[in-house]
Specification:
The relative contact order is 0.12. A hairpin with a 6-residue loop joins strand 3 (112-117) and strand 4 (124-130). This protein has two domains: 1-30; 67-134, no CATH class. The chain is built from three helices and four strands; from the N terminus they run H-E-E-H-E-E-H. The chain is elongated. 27% of the residues lie in helices and 18% in strands. By secondary structure, it is an alpha+beta fold. Strands 1-2-3-4 form a four-stranded antiparallel β-sheet.
C-alpha cells in the first residue's frame, strides 16, 4: 500500500513539472510568433503598453512614432477625437494593419477612430474602432 501511494505522489510531481516546463517554453516561443521582416524580428507587445503601435501591436524603438491626427475639441474640454494611421512598419506593409476592436484588416485609406484624453503628465488614447466597424 505504501509503494502505491509513493508511486502516485511521484506521478503527480512529474506531471506538475512537465506542465510547468511546457508553459515556460511555450511562453518564450509565443513572443517570437508573427511575421518577420528582413530588417528585424517583430517585437510583439501587449496592446496598451507605452510605445506600442495600436494598429499592428509592434513595440516601437526610441524615436519611432505612430502617425496620427488629433482634431480640435468640440466642447472645449480636455478630450478630442483622433485618427490613427499606424507606425512605419504597418504603413510600409511589413505587418498587417488590424483593428483591435473588430479584428478587420485595414486597407491603406482606413484609420482607427479614437478619443484622446489630455492629462497633465501623460495623455491617454482610447480606441473606439476602425472606419469599418464604426461606420464612418
Amino acid at each position: 500500500m505504501g509503494r502505491l501511494i509513493l508511486t502516485f505522489v511521484l506521478v503527480i510531481i512529474a506531471v506538475a513539472l512537465l506542465w510547468f516546463g511546457y508553459t515556460l517554453l511555450m511562453g518564450k516561443l509565443q513572443g517570437n510568433r508573427g511575421k518577420t521582416s528582413n530588417r528585424r524580428l517583430r517585437k510583439i507587445s501587449i496592446p496598451g503598453e507605452p510605445q506600442t503601435c495600436p494598429v499592428c501591436s509592434t513595440k516601437l524603438d526610441e524615436g519611432e512614432v505612430v502617425r496620427s491626427l488629433a482634431f480640435p475639441s468640440l466642447t472645449g474640454g480636455k478630450d478630442r477625437f483622433m485618427h490613427i494611421k499606424g507606425c512605419i512598419y504597418c504603413l510600409n506593409g511589413e505587418f498587417d494593419r488590424i483593428c483591435p476592436v473588430c479584428g478587420h484588416t485595414l486597407r491603406d485609406i482606413e484609420v482607427l477612430v479614437c478619443r484622446l484624453f489630455e492629462r497633465p503628465h501623460r495623455s491617454h488614447v482610447h480606441v473606439l474602432g476602425c472606419t469599418y466597424c464604426r461606420g464612418v
